[in-house]
Design brief:
By secondary structure, the first copy, chain A, is mainly alpha-helical. Chain A contains six helices and three strands, in the order E-H-H-E-E-H-H-H-H.
Chain lengths: 145, 145
DNA sequence: CTTAATGTCTCTAGCAACTAGAGGTTCAAG
DNA sequence: CTTGAACCTCTAGTTGCTAGAGACATTAAG
């Protein structure tokens, strides 16, 4: 049986985050020692690794909750899991497109900065005037995280 | 003079967001009409467009606050603005690298999904077992937004 | 001139996904 | 037996907004 600290180290998830996952029901309530400390077995370890890995891949906790409930009922078709992963891929590609556009524009801003005073600083100018930025990032777009 | 609604439409920033920016001091306190409604001139319009554009480029509100205070004192060197933009570029590139890795892994997961049952679903398996994922996304990495 | 619809006001609370801190208890090593 | 690390619960804070309640302002139509 692992204490929360050991589990934290092994899974690469911080201690308060583990407690948080328990609180929101992503992890089951842990067994407790005589002194009320949480104890974990390999099942929770696996579940936590799953969560960790999915978080690395950018899945939201909600999506992870769905994936976990799917994996708890292994007899059904995996179409739903596939669907979640595909939606995630679409989101990732969308962010990629936008980030590449940002990269290009930031490069342009920086390269053209003449190292003069703020008064003719390209960075400030481009931010202040959308027309100066040759790139097509729609003003209606949301910021890319 | 524009009402907050017109400003919102023109700048592409939602009404509550404008009030929020005022609250946190990114925008100055607005003039008021006889009936206590906010009124804006072109100066605030420009400032809001600046903020909007910088948010599009992924700058945090803190970075934007710095950029704005720089642009308020146009006589100094633009090195600081350049610095902020460069840091932003580094962050963007970092996110790009991680997102590309995620894209590759998600593609692999999905392609290999045999449309069978959950029991042999590639998506679930890869998430549950880090060794199955041929890609090098360090378990210590943070999730990419 | 009145009425209705829309716009605006303030205020509080909520979202994701944690993180930080206070103040107290338990455990393992020496 | 003591010390110090690890653990407990609880509350509050983070970022960048968004949603809703209940009240007042403004505008367009009849």
């Amino acid at each position: 049986m692992l204490t929360i600290g050991k589990l934290s180290k092994t899974a690469g998830v911080k201690v308060p985050t583990i407690r948080y996952y328990e609180e929101i029901g992503l992890l089951p309530e842990a067994e407790r020692s005589a002194g009320n400390q949480r104890l974990y077995g390999t099942a929770t370890m696996d579940r936590l690794s799953f969560i960790r890995h999915a978080r690395d891949l950018g899945f939201t906790l909600e999506a992870i909750r769905d994936l976990l409930s799917l994996s708890d009922t292994p007899d059904q078709s995996c179409a739903a899991a596939d669907q979640i992963a595909k939606a995630q891929l679409v989101a990732v590609r969308d962010r990629l497109v936008r980030l590449r556009a940002l990269e290009v524009e930031l490069e342009r801003m920086i390269v053209q900065c003449a190292q003069g005073t703020i008064a003719d600083c390209r960075v400030i100018k481009v931010l202040g005037n959308h027309d100066l930025c040759s790139h097509e990032h729609n003003q209606k777009d949301q910021a890319v995280q």
